[in-house]
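quick one before i forget lol
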Amino acid sequence: MFLLTLLSFVAFTGFAAFFTWLITRNDEKGSSDGFFLGGRSLTFPLIAGSLLLTNLSTEQMVGLNGAAFKDGLSVMAWEVIAVIALVLMAIFFLPKFLRTGITTVPEFLELRFDRKTQAIANIVFLAAYAFLLLPIILYTGAVGLSQMLDMESLTGIKSEAGVIWFTVILIGIMGSIYSRFGGLRSLAVLDTINGVGLLVGGLMIAWFALDKVSDGNGIVAGWNALYEKSPERLSSIGGAEQSVPFSTLFTGVALLNLFYWCTNQQIIQRTFGASSLAEGQKGVLLTGALKLLGPIYLVIPGIIAYHLYADLGVKNDQAYGYLVRDLLPPYLTGFFAAVMVGAILSSFNAALNSTSALFSIGVYKTMINPKGSEESMVRAAKIFVTVIAIAAMIAAPLLLGQDSIFGYLQKMNGIYFIPIFAVVLMGMLNKRTPPIAATVGLVLGLILISVFYFVPACAAVLKSLNIHDFHFLGIVFAILLAVMQLITVAKPLPEKWTLQATDKIDLTPWKGAKPVSAVLVITVIIIYIAFAI
């Protein structure tokens, strides 16, 4: 049994690694464009595959299914509302970003405002990735794999903490090695291969799970059984006591999605590597279409796990791994574990690659060695991400004990998501906004959210007023826009800022972008109406 699991794991992992090497072995990785943006040669299937798998790591597979285990179908908001954000990325944000020829979001802020704004954004991104994103990727990966492969029996380590430490270090070392020697195109190709496997495996889990609920009578019977037992858990409309109340879809949930898909360096770096604007738009919108399938493999399995294991003492974030190990035969368990490892490494490597770009372009080239060569930038980036990876491996096991790692991630993300998105949006919409407004917006946003999150007296005020965390993020966002607008009125730029177009790529938009966007938005509305029980 275990031998079959191990063989299927090794076979798929080896296939993905070899095929990636075969395709990208002659790629140029010595320059910043080559290493960080794949030589600006990515076509839409690679962009979509890489975007999807960078997003679909274990913080999604484990964390979001864990949230569904706790709250039901309403947590699908994180997948479905993402489609709206991707539409806005394709139509509004991407053309502006690609027109500048930038490599990082802070670069855009330097072009639009000044170097101080860029430096603050760089520091914020680097701190968030090092102390929040990377540790959570490693931790959720370790939790998922420890349940799927029964790592306690496999390693002989008897404590949960010991298993997590061992798995975190193993994943961290593998990811660090690959990130060090592969550029963005290598990551994109590997992402696409694993993305196909993840979609197939995720849909397979949902199929098997629904069939089990119905005692082998089919997936329709399984869904009906879930509905008959707990119809309230199959509603798209989240209640006030749940993690995603319906009203928050229009405030914090929308804003977190907009930042994540439109200005988050880890994600949109894939789109900066597009061979043309049209390819970038097609890749982003294809990702939006694929996200519509997300609830099937990121939410429904968690609901089914609750149906099957709620009385067995299974924790929220253990539910998905437990379900996979329970449902799949050994040879498929190994395959799916290999795909999960690919997903973990994808997100881990994406964050490391983005961190290296932020450091080398925003810190090394600007502050440490402005006259350094392209090769020295890439070399410094590789050293820096090794240090960051080690720090993340140390921090990840400290997350053990969180009730819902996905909820924790979204709450902490708000600290830097909201200020950066507010400043980027203001910079694009108002051509007279001065650099001082951007600086004030970034600093004020970080302080406000941090104070109300971490100072007990301030947190108590929000609780006493019955203000949900996501509504609070929406309030802060509105305050930041208002403050920046007031500064703009008081001290506008003497001349309107103009966006200088680059000649690095073809900026002709895709003719199908707007019709496809309309179809995606309408589909989102239909999904919410259909499940508004």
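fyi The CA atoms of residues 213 and 250 lie 34 Å apart.
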